[in-house]
Amino acid sequence: MKKTFDASRPSTGPASWPSKGPSAWKGAVAAGGRARVTRVGGLLTLLLVGWAVRAGAAAVSPMAVYLDDRARTSSITLFNPGELAEEIEIGFAFGYPTSDAEGNVGVALVEEPGADEPNAVPWLRAFPRRLVLEPGQRQVVRIMVQPPAGLDDGEYWGRALIRSRGGQPPIEELRGDVAVQVNVETVVVAAVSYRHGRVDTGLEVVAAGARRDGGRVVGLIDLARMGNAAFLGRIVAEVIDGEGMVLGATEDVLAVYRTIRRRVEVPVPAGAEGPLRLRYRLDTDRDDLPAGGPLPAEPVVHTVPVA
Length: 307
Fold this sequence. Notes:
This protein is mainly β. The protein has strands at about 1-5, 35-40, 45-50, 60, 65-70, 75-80, 85-95, 95-100, 105-110, 125, 130-135, 140-145, 155-165, 170-175, 180, 185-195, 200-215, 215-225, 230-240, 245-255, 260-265, 275-285, 300-305. The protein contains no helices and 23 strands. The strands form five sheets. Strands 1, 2, 3, 5, 7, 8, 9, 11, 13 and 16 form a ten-stranded mixed β-sheet that branches. Strands 4-6-12-10 form a four-stranded antiparallel β-sheet, with no helix packed on it. A four-stranded antiparallel β-sheet has the order 20-19-22-23, with no helix packed on it. It is globular, with a radius of gyration of 21 Å.
């Protein structure tokens, strides 16, 4: 049994209301969070369902690592809060957040990404790569990048996979008349980015919409990244009335590596009458990431009527 902590390609057409029910993908993009994991062929799909980086696993901090030409080495700290020793193995995979047609976000880890992807995985190393973490023990792990010469300017991506085994007793299951012990492996996923040369970022709103659904306003917004590096920030959605008064608001983290569709749901007071509008505000205000993580970018404000 495997448990993973971290996150179909996003639609690039106009925002539209899906005809199907809620997707199995639920969550929000971030540097890391709790997720379920399934493997189909060479594709490992992480479904974000929370923010915890501890649940029978070694704690990892920070959950994102940023490397560049001046600092090609950084570190993460592992801590074992449990009562059993953890066998730790650190590897790397390629992946970044994408969304489905309903605006639900996940991170698919691809073992062999296409040649056009900014893949940093072959250049990443961890020291030590394997270790045993005793109860209460901390261990600093260095993350190093060794890029080849002649790279184009831009940001190159990977994910560090911190696998923990042995920290939880085996799960006993009864299958018919046979008792089975299932060993648990937990994977914590941290984002790793290498920035080479000139890097910049920004956002373009491709399409957006909003509709009233009972006591809430539901919005979809399609975003495309500008520049040559990921946009890391937040999305704030506010329902405003005809006089510009904010009736309700919601906020979430936002990561746009290429394109993404995001869904927002904003509660509104009972009896709120139209015409209403939904205002999207997108900026790089992220206090949950290490200093220097989010690149500077101009804030984006986009307002649509509520149907």
